Amino acid sequence: MHCVQSQSPGSSGAISSAGEFSPVTFEDVARVDQIVLGAGLFGLAAADFATGSGLRVAIVDPDPVPLSRASFANQARLHLGYHYPRSVGTALQALHYHKRFATEFATHINNQLTKIYAVARYESHTSAQGFEAFCNNVGIPITVADPDEWFQAGTVEQAFICAESAFDARGIRAEMLERLSDRDRLSWHLGTRLERVERDEDCFELRLTDGSVLSAPRVLNATYASINQVVDLFGFEPLPITYELCELVLGRPSDALAPYGITVMDGPFFSVMPFGSTGLHSLSAVDYTPHHRSDGPLPSFPCQAHHPSCSPQALANCGTCPHRPPTLSTEMDQLMRRFLRRELRLEPMRSVLAVRPVLRISSVDDSRPTLVYQHSKKPELISVLSGKINTIYDLESLW
Ligand SMILES: Cc1cc2nc3c(=O)[nH]c(=O)nc-3n(C[C@H](O)[C@H](O)[C@H](O)COP(=O)(O)OP(=O)(O)OC[C@H]3O[C@@H](n4cnc5c(N)ncnc54)[C@H](O)[C@@H]3O)c2cc1C
User: Of 28, 76, 298, 347, which is most buried by a Cβ count within 10 Å?
Assistant: First the structure.
């Protein structure tokens, strides 16, 4: 096995800006400068940075359509820091990248909402005074508001108008695919997954389930919930992760709720947010959104027993899975109703599900750092475990 760089990436496939993938047959080992595993937003951003630096890149994903897992099935909150009163580091990281992301994807950001953060009167880990001081320290705008406008009497200590917006994942996907569609240094391998890994002193050779073989001196593992499954195939130590099988309820907001995003802090409460620019809102609740937790090292959930191609070694896409757990939309809706005024209602319609990997250390302070971890130098394997969408720029320093 010889790791020869800068040859043709070989025949593989092409993707149109509409996301249509046309595979062609592989006949040989395709040698590239870099292999990106995962076509979520982080994988696509990595492919963008790497091909922009003149490198030949192959991108691999078991799903036929990019951005079909966590980068789509999330709460669409373009974080500015408010969500992390117990982790100033996470808040500052979100703030640091906010403007750049909001500018780069401006047409896919919903700025029309009014965002309310409120501190629950009981059981909150933070106080209204503490939340306000935290926002002032971090430097994010906050205005005290009358809670009676949105909340039932006595449920919250204080409400604040904040400056948070929502991103539209479908629009971002279209923009990224448009951007990458004319990169002739990029080859796509969608609908196929990593089966076996070999290495010599210079490169990794990856065999995919469709029979194709890729070789490169550097592999970026941007597979999020599957991060340790990939690390395992490479034979390295797993990262210390807990996995949560998460449900977000999507529904039609009442006219009174439609202009708002509302989050009750900081404990067993809920958050209701516009789901990008879809006209729907998503609803999550700390006690109900995670259906199951798995303490790893690989993600293991009861529903996998019913799905022949989902296992701790290879996760299928929960978004399209017929064996997903029964919805907890009623419980989430009831919780929301306990806090909000009668006219602020959500009519639940469907749910989106995804597995969220959380670094075990985050259970202490609810932090969500983005981790970029080098497992080996030559050949090089790097994993990225993202905490938030807008930290894609953490990858830029790799090129
Ligand atoms: C319930 C929930 C709510 C969230 N809310 C927010 C929020 O409001 N705001 C925010 O900024 N962030 C939020 N996040 C976090 C955010 O979604 C993630 O940080 C981000 O989407 C991760 O992007 P990614 O590209 O790393 O992962 P993904 O988008 O999941 O992409 C990983 C890709 O890897 C592929 N893959 C899997 N196995 C393999 C393999 N063996 N080989 C190759 N490819 C593979 C998958 O098919 C997938 O396409 C939330 C996450 C969850 C789960």
Answer: 76
Q: Which of 53, 65, 385, 64 is nearest to 186 (CA)?
A: 53
The pLDDT tens digits for 39-75 are 999 999 999 999 999 999 999 999 999 999 999 999 9
All domains of the chain in start order, with CATH: 13-69+171-237+369-398 (3.50.50.60), 109-167+241-359 (3.30.9.10)
Q: What is the whole-number distance in angstroms between the Cα of residue 3 and the centre of ligand 1?
A: 30
The residue among 135, 140, 164, 160 whose CA lies nearest residue 77 is 164
Q: Is the CB of 93 under 6 A from ligand 1?
A: no
Rounded Cα gap, residues 77 and 86, in angstroms? 18
Q: Report the nearest-CA residue for atom 32 of ligand 1.
A: 223
> If you take atom 1 of ligand 1, which residue's CA is the nearest one?
74
Q: Judge whether 75 and 271 are in contact, CB under 8 Å.
A: yes
Backbone angles phi, psi at 37, to 5 degrees: -95, 120
Pocket test for ligand 1, best of 71, 167, 272 (most atoms within 8 A of CB): 71
14, with CB counted inside 10 A (0-12, 13-18, 19+), is middle
- The per-residue DSSP string of 299-322 comes to ---GGGGG-TT-BTTB---GGG-T
Is the distance from the beta carbon of residue 155 to the nearest atom of ligand 1 less than 6 Å? no
- Which of 290, 296, 309, 291 lies closest to 228 in space, CA to CA? 296
- Looking at residue 106, its amino acid is A
**What are the structure tokens assigned to 248, written together?**
């977000």
The CA distances from residue 155 to 150, 248, 331, in Å, are 11, 23, 18
User: Which pTM value belongs to this model?
Assistant: 0.93
Half-sphere exposure of 132 (CA within 13 A, CB side): 11
**Is any ligand 1 atom within 6 A of the Cβ of residue 354?**
yes
